[in-house]
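pasting for ref. prot 1 ->
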Amino acid sequence: MTDIKHLFTYGLAFGNSWLYGLVILASAIYGLRVIKHKDTGATGLRLLSGIGFLATDAGIFLGGIWPSYFTLVAILILPAPFVFAFAAVRPPAVWKRAKLRMYLNLCVVASGLMWVAQLLWELRASRVCALLRHLTGSAMLNDLFNTTRGFTAVLIACVGLLTIFPWQPILLRRPTSRESFRPVLLLTLSSLLQVTFILLVGGNVLTLDYSVRFAALGLPLCILALVLAGRRKQEPDLPRGTVTCVILSLVMWMFLITVH
């Protein structure tokens, strides 16, 4: 059973790599279009509903292949395809309801993040790193992927970059309201949890199995930060790149959860 699972996994990674790109691209297109849904006609809303239907179906498929953390997410987004199918027939009945629209948006985001996390896991599980080392012959690349400290440093650098970027206008003392500062603060707290976990694992104090416990605290912070940043996206005082950095931080959490 394990061999079949691994065979299927590598088949998805290399034989059907287009599927990853298609789902991630569909989620990205949905995210870009949903921002301007008020200016979209009935035909555009039907097309948007079709994209959402495909994206959430893909998320349910990924969560239903075998039991995993994705299965829990798939259960939560299970009603979304049916709602999107109804929205394709009667767009105003769905898109005029703010809470229902927010649920659908979160479902598409969750589905896209699941496939991004799966893609990262596949790349890590594959021999891409070994191939790069063979082609480049770089000693520094070997050290980076062969030593725990090197990999820990890379992860911390990624988390640090995602955290510092939204702080730029605040550090430069540009006027920022309390409401616009809150998502940045929540992102920072989530990043501190990520760095703490990475350091503890790198120091062999904890194992990767503890990632779920850290994520139980960090993921709600990220989700709340995304909601607050989304509400303030049209405000000029919201630090630039906050929404993008929060989404990438969610991807980092998904990577830390699935990496073990």
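and prot 2 ->
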Amino acid sequence: MNFKTFTEAVSQHRQQRSRKIDIDQAKSLIKQNASQITDYYKGHPNERIYRGYSASDTASYLIEPTKFIRQSRNTSNYYTLLIDTILNSWTNYPKRSQSIICTTEYSMAQAFGYPFVVFPYNNAKIAICKTADFWQGFEYLKTEIDISGMDSFNQFIIEPIMRIFPGQLFTYAFNSASRLMDEDPEWLRALIGGLDWGTTQYSPYEVAKKSRLMHKFNNLIEWMLYNKQTDFIKAFDILLNPEKNKFKLQQLPKINLSANSEVGIYSNEVWTDANSILVPVYEATNIIFGRSYYKKS
């Protein structure tokens, strides 16, 4: 799939992915389909999967993630395209473009809306990032080429290559870059260095941006030369490898939501492509413990 097709698919599938249900329906669906996560929550009272949702706290919701394609907020979707459809190392993970993105921290969910507890259906695959934000979860990428997040990866690696091969499909552009890397890496550097970012030629902004761009891109080139790797996609499959970057993939009922947390830090981004029920926190507590544990104030 190329980037244009991917973004068109996003647009075509942006129908409502959630369906409002009442609390009795939520309880019934959880009892029928989400007993495994309920048992886990009961045995681990300090661990929950939360989702901040821009909705009324009086309702519950059924989310069916695979029925739509989500697009990352405030960024191009290049890295999502790579991870979901191109890189072999991510094959077994839930596709982020067809998942519900959640957190293990209540306050993080609060930042995105009213906090709900998420009840993924039985046997759900759950991907767990080591950090609170997927963008900042690529420790190996940072160590190897000094790229600190997916926003920088998009800006300093993906977008420049797409610009020196305008009009090409995503995979074709990187195949072209790989051929050039194999034949003449210095010419590839020169092409990247010659990019016009649309600002005044000698403006401080352009000079600073080009300086950062060349530093980051040169780090990648040097890493590829050192590792005798001329194929960009294969290089990305190593640098973004989930195991090297300490992501974890778990499946209900055998999960441990705190297994990927640093000592004393319990904030991890998680995602799943399983159907899930979202329930307000006070109602979720009642469901988990099978009684009116406490009521909404």
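The chain has twelve helices and nine strands.
The two ends are 49 Å apart (CA to CA).
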